[in-house]
Amino acid sequence: MLPPPPADRFVVFLSGAGLSAASGIRTFRDPGGLWEGFRAEELATPEAFARDPERVWRFYAWRLEVAAAAEPNSGHLALARLQAAWGPQRVRLVTQNVDGLLDRAGCDEVIEMHGSLLRWRCARGVGHGVVEIEAGQPPPRSCARCGDWMRPAVVWFGEVPIDLDRIGAWSTRCHSFIAVGTSGVVYPAAGYAALARRSGALAVEINPERTGGSFDRCIEQPAEVALPALVEAWL
Ligand code: BV8
After folding, report:
1. 76 is catalytic
2. Whole-prediction pTM value?
3. How close is the Cα of 4 to the center of ligand 1, in Å?
4. Residue 122 to residue 94: CA distance in whole angstroms
5. What is the rounded distance in angstroms from the CA atom of residue 129 to the CA atom of residue 230?
6. Listing from the earlier edge strand, what are the strands of the sheet with 150-154?
7. Handedness of CA 134, 139, 144, 145 (dihedral sign)
8. Is 180 helix (H, G, I), strand (E, B) or coil?
9. Atom of ligand 1 nearest to the CA of 206
10. Is the shortest distance between the CB of 43 and ligand 1 below 6 Å?
């Protein structure tokens, strides 16, 4: 079993689509995943949106609907339980996921480094304001200020992820860095485990399939099984 961080140290959990798989949200690169049949570049880039805003808008409106209908699973809830016991300073959460399920599970101060489906903005930039989408509501199609297309406030390929400085600082100072449900394909997210390990942290992967990344330990189990067991052992 993994050693818990000492009381004066902290653990970072970096999650990917595998954490939400048990909530019925398909991953990106597993067979039958979201990108199957599409090339990511076809839909998750500013160029794709500029080329065919209707198609990309509909793809994300559909993903918002799927995320809103999903429920946090035992993996999300385990992270919320650990944070409730030890606080968000000792249990720091970073996610590549845009489904908002960690927030809905009751987690605090989550860094959503690839943004969120629950926030939409004018395609021209954040100057016209960001719209928070209520559960079950469809996203707006056009900006109330200028009438241009609205787009999800997610980070597309070629766009700069959110809070990279903070994620980098956490990765170089944490006691342990646990990557949960991510294939380690997408950068710069995929580079933080190795950075943490080089900085002396214990680097751990929770994934039913080893990704071959730079980890000290690999827990080859699904997140919805491994996380509740880990939190139970730690608490
Ligand atoms: C950028 C939001 C410049 C939209 C997404 C090197 C350095 C920097 C950049 C690059 C680089 N090399 C290439 C790049 C460019 C590019 C990139 O990484 N391309 C890849 C394809 C090679 N990166 C970018 O463009 C990034 N921006 O570089 O800007 C910059 C950078 C830094 C500083 C200045 C300038 C932006 C990338 C963000 C793209 N947006 N999402 C949307 O969601 O539509 S990425 C998308 O992939 C999702 O966020 C997703 O989360 C993410 C990663 O995928 P995973 O989460 O890992 O999901 P996947 O399906 O791949 O894997 C699931 C895993 O779960 C599997 O391993 C499976 O075994 C496991 N699993 C399954 N079931 C379970 C499970 N695990 C546990 N339990 C289970 N039950």
Report:
1. no
2. 0.96
3. 27
4. 25
5. 40
6. 130-132, 115-122, 150-154
7. positive
8. strand
9. 77
10. no
